Amino acid sequence: MTTPISRASRPKPQSGGWELATWYLMRLTGLGLFVTALAHYIIVHFLYDPKDQTAQWILDERWGNVAWRTVDWLMLSFVVFHAFMGMRTVISDYTTGGVRTALTMALYLSALVIFAMGTMAVMTFEFPVKA
Amino acid sequence: MLLQYRGSEGMLAWAFHRISGIAIWAFILLHVFDIWLASVNPELYDELLAIYGSFLGRVVKSLLGAALLYHALNGLRIIIMDFWPSMTRYHKHMWYANWVLFAVIGLPILIQIMAPAFGFERPFRFQ
User: How does pLDDT run across A19-59, given as a tens digit for each residue?
Assistant: First the structure.
């Protein structure tokens, strides 16, 4: 049996464990983002115009119900994993040793901060009081 | 580097995927920050919004859309080859198909975003 080697992307890790899980999760979150991120881009640029999107607009048109907030939080989870683990691949391609370790740790820390900030926004954003 | 190296479609596809990925990552940092700002200081966020709606803002958003659409389409191409390795034979065909989809999907969105910057009405109306 031949081992499938991908030339276009990161080769599938043969070791199993966390690296293999990450390889699958990159593809899974990628598919998730194909739907959620493209839809998000089309909503805020094609259906609506960027100049109208004040904080009040977010409240009225986007985050007025829990379902949209859930979808956007799901998108946040996908993108934090996908973007930061993608950057980890970039870092490990161009650096070695202590520099790689330091940059990777800084990357993980910033991922946590971004995830916390996004979660805070989606959960604490004022809810509309509809008359 | 891109022009000197003897790279063909596969190498360009990889390079564009990496460049667009890093660009999108950088935008995500900004975008999560601005939404966080909207939740803690709506007035300041509304001021930031003026930049997003400006001419330069629209150009940057169009470039972001291009990076996003390329990365999404090429990502599907990668997934196809990862899970169906025999499809790797058609990797160039799929790359050209991606550019056709890129143009067909991207052009109407580009026109919709840039029209106000040139003083035109947005051509597609939904409200």
Answer: 999 999 999 999 999 999 999 999 999 999 999 999 999 99
Q: Tell whether A13 is within 8 A of chain B (Cβ).
A: no
Rounded-to-10 torsion of CA A89, A91, A95, A99: -130
Query: Which of B69, B79, B91 is the closest to A30 by Cβ?
Result: B79
Question: Residue with structure tokens 């379902």?
Answer: A67
Does residue A125 sit in helix, strand or coil?
Answer: coil
**C-beta separation of A46 from B109 below 8 A:** yes
Give the predicted TM-score (pTM) of the model. Answer: 0.91
Residue B4 to chain A, least CA–CA distance (Å) = 20
Q: What is the ipTM of this complex?
A: 0.92
Question: Which pLDDT value is given to residue B4?
Answer: 59
A109-123 pLDDT tens trace? 999 999 999 999 999
With H, G, I as helix, E, B as strand and everything else as coil, classify residue A7: coil
The answer to whether the beta carbons of residues A107 and A91 sit under 8 Å apart is yes
Distance CA A61, CA B54 (A): 22
